Amino acid sequence: MRARKSVYIAYTGGTIGMRQGAHGYEPAPGFLEEQMSRLPVLASPDMPRYRIHEYDPLLDSANMSPADWVKLGRDIMSRYDRYDGFIVLHGTDTMAFSASSLSFMFRNLGKPIVFTGSQIPLCEVRTDARENLITSLLLAARHPIPEVSLFVGHQLLRGNRATKVSAKRFLAFSSPNYPPLGEAGVDLVINRDRVLPSPSEPIAFDAVGHAQVADLRIFPGITPETLEAFLGPLHGAVLHTYGAGNAPDRPELLEVLQQASERGVVLVNCTQCLEGSVNMAGYATGNALREAGVISGYDMTPEAALTKLYYLLSQDLDPEEIREQMQQNLRGELSRPAAEP
Ligand code: ASP
């Protein structure tokens, strides 16, 4: 008989454990565990043993900040040797940010960290939480995927490739630029060739600090004044540009970008499109950004780009080194074309 594996569940909050309050769904201490105790399947010998740790306070993930990512990462790191795998129960709204941030903060991760949550709370009749929770437990226990992943709906996605695309479907996430790591149908199928290799070095954890970073969605009519005011206090920014990485190439706007780059602000170009990669050699408008010091985010999700900026800005690196590493594939978050112009 197979020895029962052991999984640690960090319960941070989110819809999965919420109940109806006076102003809508809200987390309630002790409520999720009480609901889970009513699921006999969790005590089945086919399921792993688990220990659940409820965070205080439980958060709607809209309220999560980098300090919460660090708290979560440190918690898992402190228990890393004692469990076969880890589950993070988390709201879906900012799950892709938290999963991306953990993927960067852990170096040489050798065990699975699976983020999951739900669109309908576990206490409701039509909940999607039950399947997400049960399958995540099986994934974390039986499939030694050395990655931060995300399981919601029936797909296992790389965490730093995932983005929330639906507020109503159970399949709430998509991984537009990297295929799913696995799929839960009749069988639980893992695509091994898509999973990162096991590390040969020991696990390490580098917390993110207090960098000033931000996202800016470029829009028709953006003025140099707006851009300047926005970039003023920042150390880094993700510019959400049009299509293959284009923005208006009016000289007054480019000058603001150039000046920001020169004072050390790291400017990363990600596309507003859900799918595809930035190619700043494709159009004159994209090329002008490159000449103003903006670097390519290639096919990173905006969530991965922002959390990677937080991560790199928290290391002892100068802006040029950060720009260099932003464009490298650190944790499977980015693909670069084989031949670049
Ligand atoms: N607002 C919730 C949260 O992100 C939504 C969810 O869990 O799906 O915490």
What does this structure look like?
The protein is an alpha/beta fold and 341 residues long. Helix content is 27%, strand content 23%. It folds into 2 domains: 200 residues, L-asparaginase, N-terminal domain (Rossmann fold); 114 residues, Rossmann fold (3-Layer(aba) Sandwich), CATH 3.40.50. The strands form 5 sheets. It has an 8-stranded mixed beta sheet with strand order 4-1-5-7-8-9-12-13, with helices on both faces. The chain has a 4-stranded parallel beta sheet with strand order 15-16-17-18, sandwiched between helices. Helix 2 packs across helix 3, helix 3 crosses helix 8 and helix 5 packs parallel to helix 6. The mean pLDDT is 96. The structure holds aspartic acid. Aspartic acid binds next to loops.
Provide a compact summary of the structure.
It contains 9 helices and 18 strands. The chain is α/β, with parallel strands linked by helices and 341 residues long.
SSE diagram, text form:
Blueprint: E1 6-13, E2 18-21, E3 24-27, H1 31-36, E4 49-59, H2 66-79, E5 85-89, H3 95-105, E6 106-107, E7 113-116, H4 129-142, E8 148-152, E9 155-158, E10 163-164, E11 173-174, E12 182-184, E13 188-190, E14 204-205, E15 213-217, H5 224-231, E16 236-241, H6 251-262, E17 266-271, H7 284-291, E18 295-296, H8 302-313, H9 319-326
Parallel strand pairs: 1-4, 1-5, 5-7, 7-8, 15-16, 16-17, 17-18
Antiparallel strand pairs: 2-3, 6-14, 8-9, 9-12, 10-11, 12-13
Helix pairs in contact: 2-3, 3-8, 5-6, 8-9
